[in-house]
Specification:
This protein is mainly beta and 208 residues long. It is built from two helices and ten strands; from the N terminus they run H-E-E-E-E-E-H-E-E-E-E-E. A hairpin with an 8-residue loop joins strand 3 and strand 4.
Length: 208
C-alpha cells in the first residue's frame, strides 16, 4: 500500500470506537455487517475541512483536496482497531488561489519543508451507542502532539458493487500556535475547528 493513513482527521476518522453497541441499536446492527480487515478511504466520499475566526468578521471554511487513510478494523473488538491518515499539505484549498499560496508559505504550513501532515491513532474508546473517541498523534509542520477526535459511527453497508463500507464523522479543535503557526494571533483566531466526513471501503473479495 502506498499510504497508511483519521483528523477524523481524518479521520476519522477515524471513528472505530462506535461499534461496540447494544444489539438493539440500529446503528450497531449495521456495524456488524462489516467484516474485519483493512479499509481505505473512498476517494469520492472523504472530506477534511477546517475553520477559524477571521478578525471577528467571518469564519472561513477551507479543505484539503488530497488525503488518504487506512483503517484496520476489528469487528469483534472495535476498540482494538486503528487508523492512519496522510494529508498532502500542498493540496490546501481556500477557494482563493492567492491565499492558498500564502498558506503554503513559512508563516503557515511551510509546505516546502513539511509536505505531509499525518495522524496515527494510539487508542480508541467507545462513548455511547454510536459515539467514540480516538486519540492519536498529529504531526503538522514538523511538530507532533496528541489530539483527540470525537467521532460518530454513521452506518455500515455492503453491496456487490462497492463491497463493505463504513461511514464516520469526526471533529476536533486544535491551536495553531501549538504547531508553530501563531502568525496574526489573536487577530485571526488561534483555535481551529476540524471536521471530518469519510467513508471507508473494502472490496468484498478482500474480506476475511
Amino acid at each position: 500500500m502506498t499510504v497508511r493513513s483519521s483528523i477524523y482527521l481524518a479521520a476519522a476518522l477515524i471513528a472505530v470506537a462506535a461499534c461496540g453497541k447494544p444489539a438493539e441499536s440500529q446503528a450497531a446492527d449495521a456495524a456488524f455487517e462489516a467484516v474485519s480487515g483493512e479499509y481505505v478511504t473512498d476517494p469520492y466520499h472523504r472530506y477534511i475541512t477546517f475553520s477559524y475566526m477571521h478578525q471577528g468578521l467571518s469564519r472561513p471554511w477551507l479543505r484539503w483536496r488530497d488525503w488518504e487513510a487506512t483503517l484496520d478494523w476489528d469487528a469483534e473488538n472495535p476498540e482494538a482497531s486503528s487508523v492512519e491518515v496522510l494529508i498532502d499539505a500542498l493540496s490546501i484549498d481556500s477557494g482563493v488561489d492567492v491565499f492558498d499560496e500564502h498558506l503554503k508559505g513559512e508563516r503557515f504550513f511551510d509546505v516546502a519543508n513539511h509536505p505531509e501532515i499525518t495522524f496515527v491513532s494510539t487508542s480508541v474508546e467507545r462513548k455511547g451507542d454510536d459515539k467514540g473517541v480516538i486519540a492519536g498523534d498529529l504531526t503538522l509542520k514538523g511538530v507532533t502532539l496528541p489530539v483527540v477526535l470525537d467521532v460518530t459511527f454513521n452506518k455500515a453497508s455492503f453491496s456487490e458493487r462497492s463491497g463493505y463500507k463504513l461511514g464516520f464523522s469526526g471533529k476536533t479543535v486544535i491551536k495553531r500556535s501549538d504547531f508553530d503557526m501563531d502568525y496574526a494571533v489573536p487577530i485571526v483566531s488561534d483555535e481551529v475547528e476540524i471536521l471530518i466526513e469519510t467513508e471507508f471501503v473494502m472490496p468484498a473479495d478482500d474480506s476475511e
